[in-house]
Amino acid sequence: MNEISSPSFNQAVEQLSSLPGIGKKTAVRLVLHLLNRTSEEVTAFGDAFSVLPQQINYCKSCFTITDTDYCSICINPNRATNSICVVENVLDVYAIENTNQFKGKYHVLGGIISPMEGIGPNDIKLNELFARVEQEKTEELILALSATMEGDATNFYVFKKLQHLPVKLTTIARGIGIGDELEYTDELTLGRSILNRVPFENTLLMK
Fold first, then answer.
1. What span, in angstroms and rounded, lies between the C-alpha atoms of 81 and 104?
2. What 3-state DSSP class applies to 32?
3. CATH of segment(s) 7-55
4. How far apart are CA 168 and CA 142, in angstroms?
5. What is the pLDDT of residues 35-65, one digit of tens each?
6. How far apart are CA 113 and CA 199, in angstroms?
7. Is 108 helix (H, G, I), strand (E, B) or coil?
8. Terminal Cα distance for the chain, rounded
9. Each residue of 187-196: pLDDT tens digit?
10. What is the CATH number of domain 57-205?
């Protein structure tokens, strides 16, 4: 689409359209909407993003986003300390939390094993996970990765690495379709999948 004869406007459109899922037309509408806000509101909007690199940290325990050393879930004394739910990214933590069906803690891998993309076990937070399981004497590890070939490969890698420990490995029930991402799964389906989780060994027998 043609640019508007304002370098400042076009730069704002370029920045917004660089975000995933936002095309040029949507970016133009968003910038026009911001122009109808007060200067104070627009400044507050920009400030909220400009401070992100300085103020956002990753939890030293589970690697989700936090403003402090440890996230609110990890320091919550009401969360179960004997179970850890393993997820691919921070969005999955939010998706599972919205179901209100899991009361343990999390471990964000920051990706999944994908040889095609050059992502190996050492490129994600797997070694940190194994150390947590041993140090915290975890009783159950819930593998809540996406139902993809890469997710299954990561699950199997974790299974093989932890076979020598007395930890129960479970995986969320396959109410979630093959290839589905957790963040796009509706809360009811995801909640049932967590409640009806099955031993990981059972999924191996099904293949």
1. 6
2. helix
3. 1.10.8.420
4. 8
5. 999 999 999 999 998 988 888 899 999 999 9
6. 21
7. strand
8. 49
9. 667 777 777 7
10. 3.40.1360.10
